[in-house]
Design goal:
2 domains, calcium transport, signal, 153 residues
Length: 153
């Protein structure tokens, strides 16, 4: 009985978000929308960007309120929050006997995050917003992390 109540509460809390996503992202698995796969990809990526912005903003506010530095909040909460879904997806496909897909998901999602998640905003900054400018990176470990990630690929 408790599970039923929790599922109802979860449904009530998530329904508005699911409804908005349903209305704005075409479902490519339906024959009517099969040819709109790129629209689905782009809209999904834009929604992820919006959710990420709000997630970082909320973590920054919470960290500031509790007196925790942004670096610590980013390493612990944001990194864990973005890695857990990838881990779950990798576990699911590994249990189905698709170990190569689990490894490619793990590495591929990080490569996508680095090359697209950082590349597009930096590219827009240097090509469209402030043409010819440079982007200053305020992280000592970023170059090492990117080199390690690309080396593992």
């Amino acid at each position: 009985p408790a599970d039923g109540k929790m599922n109802k509460i979860k449904w009530i809390l998530t329904w508005p978000l699911i409804f908005v996503l349903f209305c704005t992202i075409p479902n490519c698995s339906k024959p009517r929308w099969e040819s709109y796969f790129m629209v689905t990809f782009i809209l999904s990526t834009l929604w992820i960007a919006l959710f990420s912005y709000f997630m970082v903003w909320m973590v920054t506010v919470i960290g500031y309120t509790l007196g925790i530095p942004d670096v610590i909040m980013g390493i612990t909460f944001l990194a864990a929050g973005t890695s857990v879904p990838d881990c779950m997806a990798s576990l699911i496909v590994a249990r189905q006997g698709l170990g190569d897909m689990a490894v490619s998901n793990t590495i591929g999602s990080n490569v996508f995050d680095i090359l697209v998640g950082l590349g597009i905003p930096w590219g827009l900054q240097t090509m469209a917003i402030d043409c010819g400018s440079t982007v200053k990176i305020n992280s000592k470990g970023l170059v090492y992390s990117v080199a390690l990630l690309l080396g593992s690929v």
